[in-house]
Amino acid sequence: EIDALAAWVVQGQPFGDPDLEPVAPQFPESGSLLDTIDLVVAIGPYTLLYNTDEYRWFAIANPFPTTIYINAIEVFPGLDDVVHHADISYDDTGASMANDQADPLPGFNSNTGQPTYSYYMNAWQPGGNIARYPSNWGIAVPPGSDFVVEIHYGPGAQGQVDSTVMNLEFVIGQDVRPVSVGWLLNTSNMTDGPLFIPANTVRTFHQERTVTAPTSFVSICPHMHNVGVSYTVWYEFQGDSIPLIRIPHWDFHWQKYYTFQQVQVIPAGAVIKSEAVYDNTPLNEHNPNDPPQDVYNGSTTEDEMFLTYFIWTNYQPGDEDIVLDSNLFAGFEDAR
Q: Are 213 and 268 in contact (CB under 8 A)?
């Protein structure tokens, strides 16, 4: 395949067979790719206060009197080059809303108080796409709760104005399957931690987690920062090794939730494993420090992280036959 692409470039990149050209995608004028927007969760607008990393939380009231189930989440960051991530949770205690109302500016920071998360729902990172689930699956949000949007702003953006928007689409019905989300692989299940990369070294770290019940996985999202160079996740079961994701050339500016072509059913007793490589030398062109400095586990962009985020639900017979991306799946079938 690489040879074919190289030959095509040498030949001047000739246009292919027009009869095989796919139909160009049609994008709505609003920019949203959701079929229906049931709720818009919008912040601010908020003017950034600092030139260093900045965390801010925004509480938005949930207007629905009954439980809703979120089937899709679409995020439009207000500052593409600044928003490191945008998380959405809900808080059924009212504490986050009280902090927001106590702060004179939109949202609040740690000077006012810490957010309360009753349930972490999803997140957006650079390059992210829509988080979408099968038609009758959804994340339950109880009445009386407030949405809490956490935004981490990277350094150097003081005075810029953010207006990040999250569009939510619901699923309605009596038999909605609850979706779970979370960092199933994190620093607590590292096998060779702690996460510390001394200056002028290349380090490799691993994680393991045993699946205790058969589980149906929808998507996966590895996360690291600028010193990271590669990331691989797989699971092992009864002597077999099954790949889940491999990113051989990590790019901090291109992170997303990778949806599996089909629901990935991981059996009870399987061990999910990961391997991440970090290059804290001058050879890493993305190294933020020149000369290199010691890098520790932490939340700022100058620190490092080793996390793998999953979206899943409890297994039901037939889940392994659910196709999440029929177009892409058909393309691979044709390629075979």
A: yes
Residue 43 near residue 79 (C-beta atoms within 8 A) = no
Q: Decide: helix, strand or coil at residue 326.
A: helix
Q: How far apart are CA 186 and CA 261, in angstroms?
A: 24
C-beta separation of 164 from 78 below 8 A: yes
Cβ atoms of 91 and 148 within 8 Å: the answer is: yes
Average pLDDT, the chain: 90
Q: What angle do CA 27, 30, 36 make, to 5 degrees?
A: 85
> Are residues 265 and 324 in contact, defined by beta-carbon separation less than 8 angstroms?
no
DSSP count for the chain of H helices, then E strands: 3, 22
- In angstroms, the CA 241 to CA 292 distance is 36
Distance, in Å, from the CA atom of 336 to the CA atom of 324, rounded to the nearest integer, reads: 19
> CB of 95 within 8 A of CB of 154?
no
What pLDDT is stored for residue 326 in this prediction?
A: 65
Hey, what are 201's tokens? 């070294």
Token pair in block for residue 48: 């950034």
According to DSSP, the residues that pair with 180 across neighbouring strands are 312
User: 64-121 pLDDT, tens per residue?
Assistant: 999 999 999 999 999 988 998 898 999 999 999 999 999 999 999 999 999 998 888 8
Please answer whether residues 87 and 93 qualify as being in contact, where contact means their C-beta atoms are separated by less than 8 angstroms: no
Distance CA 211, CA 272 (A): 7
What's the token pair of residue 267? 């059996």
pTM of the shown model: 0.75
Distance (Å) of CA 51 to CA 18, 160, 192, 195: 50, 10, 35, 27
**12-21 pLDDT, tens per residue?**
999 999 999 9
